[in-house]
Amino acid sequence: MKKIMLLFLGVLFFREGFSHPLLQNVYARQTVTLNGTWNYIVDPFDTGYFDYRQQPLKDGFFLNRKAVNPGDRFEYDFDRSATMTIPGDWNTQDERLFFYEGTVWFKKDFSYTAKPGKRVFLNFGAVNYTCNVWVNGKEAGSHEGGFTPFSFDVTALLEEGENFVIVRVNNQRRAENVPTLHFDWWNYGGITRDVMLVETPEVFIDDYLVQLPKGMTDVVEGHIRLNSPVAGVSVGLQIPELGIDRQFVTDEQGEVHFRMGARLELWSPASPRLYDVTVSGPEETLYDRIGFRNITTEGKSILLNGQPVFLKGISIHEEAPFRQGRVISREECRILLGWAKELGCNFVRLAHYPHNEHMVRTAEEMGLMVWSEIPVYWTIRFDNPPTLQNASAQLREMMERDKNRCAVVVWSVANETPHSPARDVFLENLARQVRQQDDTRLLSMAMEVSGFSDNTNKVEDYMSRLVDIISFNHYLGWYVGTPQDCKTRQWYIPYDKPFFVSEFGAGALQGYHGDPAQRWTEEYQAELYRNTLEMFDRVDGFAGTSPWILMDFRSPRRQLPYIQDFFNRKGLVSEKGVKKAAFYVLKDFYDTK
Ligand code: GCB
């Protein structure tokens, strides 16, 4: 009786947006993977979606039709089309698609046996950039934004036995998108992260948060929330190593909020302590590993667990080592982050978009603090309200997914955006959103040097009053001046806040040697690192850096034959995993910090 009641209430009171809830910790749930081999059709003119009058088709490719009778005419056939591996970008799996930007259709067959009392969600870790999804020819939903997770309730769309899912993916760059037309990384298209069916009870825990309140180290607080506003449901929280074993009863919002004293061992890079945590409802148990730490600033210092910390960082793109393409496995995350550890890092900047969940979790396990950011990059359409909505949705999804990851210490909302009143309003909105959604982490954005006079670089930005850390990118010795200029350059950063150099760097082709004044040599890059680090180390308030970048990465903007060949060469490690001289310069610097 209780179950029927719950089901009834669950159906009556769907939360707003119920068809696309963000499921906290999908990997801890009952899942059926849809990773593997998918058929695909390249559709540059979107013939499978629009008719010749540019109207959406009623019988597009999503119906997965096949000729049965001799007179049938269907000008596509998934089953006779090529296959590729999902998760995976299409650019590195089919030579014809290396530069491709447009629509590709994907289809996967799978069998499913309905389980009574279960709700089923189709969950994607990320699809770049937009997608439409159909299950058995019926629309499940759509999503925009290439780096965050989403899911659709497909319970009513599944059939007993054989099923198929079709995804139309489009990665066409557009001015109003986030990111916009111009960016310095490869526009890898496709279903780039895990796809799975997630089975939940009718009324289930869709969200939870377990953390330290800002500035405190002996109190655990948080919430557990059901998918529907059902009161009187019993939910539990167990952290055995802390002796916490509590049962709560949901309020009329279907939520519980808790706050309790605890004697904790704090998480830090030196000791990345994580606790086993179990969150349970009447019919499910979600298991997680959660750490506790405090990150604050005081004057010009960043404090981790109350102690000043220098952020020994490196920037990383989510590109796979030893092969090209998007990172797809935990092993690849471990390799990239392993190099960061070898450098002596305690911090990584995951640029320029939310990386996959494995990257953040692996960083946490390895003792690396994380800067996470959304692709509000360069000159996006700051004056366009849908662009703001889009950026805000990506920000919300990033923060929701990783809110239980203590490794994440900085949320960043932008990279190198040009000053204008429209930009200020746009970024103020995002900054406000960060503060409302999470008051326990630091807020920043990668700004730029704003002026130069009397041999002094100035960092002044209206946004500085909103951030906790003044971060900026600057390429003295590469895009302006020479590495020698660092020896005398002064800095004017007029804020009583820590400053963080979110990028500096130089291009070097691994194995190319010469004079330190010779561009593209390892010696030039090493010299620039030496001089830049010495320069910033002289400036009051220098609280860390994440030089650009750990590994050479693909970029359509980088065309110089024999040197770049479509790689940005600012890596400290080549795409083949060979370290350049500058790697050791940075390592030596971090060893002294
Ligand atoms: C930057 C950008 C980064 C580029 C880098 C470069 O300032 O933030 O995305 O890749 O410079 O190599 O020019």
Describe the fold and architecture:
By secondary structure, this protein is an alpha/beta fold. It has 3 domains: 34-200, Galactose-binding domain-like (Jelly Rolls, Sandwich), CATH 2.60.120; 205-291, Sandwich (Immunoglobulin-like), CATH 2.60.40.10; 297-591, Alpha-Beta Barrel (TIM Barrel). It is 16% helix and 31% strand. The chain has helices spanning 2-12, 330-342, 357-366, 385-402, 421-437, 522-537, 581-592, and strands at residues 30-33, 36-43, 83-86, 103-112, 118-124, 130-135, 138-144, 150-153, 161-170, 195-201, 205-211, 219-226, 234-239, 244-249, 255-261, 275-281, 284-290, 295-298, 301-304, 307-308, 311-316, 347-350, 369-373, 408-415, 442-448, 451-453, 456-458, 470-473, 490-492, 499-503, 542-545, 553-554, 567-568. The strands form 8 sheets. The protein has an 8-stranded parallel barrel, surrounded by 4 helices. The longest helix has 18 residues, at 385-402. The chain binds (2S,3S,4S,5R)-3,4,5-trihydroxy-6-oxo-oxane-2-carboxylic acid.
Question: Tags for this entry?
Answer:
6-stranded antiparallel beta sheet, Immunoglobulin-like, alpha/beta, binds (2S,3S,4S,5R)-3,4,5-trihydroxy-6-oxo-oxane-2-carboxylic acid, 593 residues, Jelly Rolls, TIM Barrel, disordered N terminus
Structural domain tally = 3
CATH architecture of the largest domain: Alpha-Beta Barrel
CATH C-level label of the largest domain? Alpha Beta
Largest sheet: 8 strands, parallel, barrel
Poorly predicted segments: 1-19
Considering the protein shown, what is the CATH homologous superfamily of the largest domain?
A: Glycosidases
Helix/strand structural class: alpha/beta
Q: Whole-number average pLDDT? A: 95
Estimate the strand proportion.
25-35%
The CATH topology of the largest domain turns out to be: TIM Barrel
Distinct ligands, ions and cofactors found in the model:
(2S,3S,4S,5R)-3,4,5-trihydroxy-6-oxo-oxane-2-carboxylic acid
Helix count from the secondary structure assignment: 7
Task: Please provide the count of β strands.
Answer: 33
Radius of gyration: 25 Å
Shape: globular
Helix content: 10-25%
Could you give the distance between the termini? 63 Å
Oligomeric organization of the protein chains? single chain
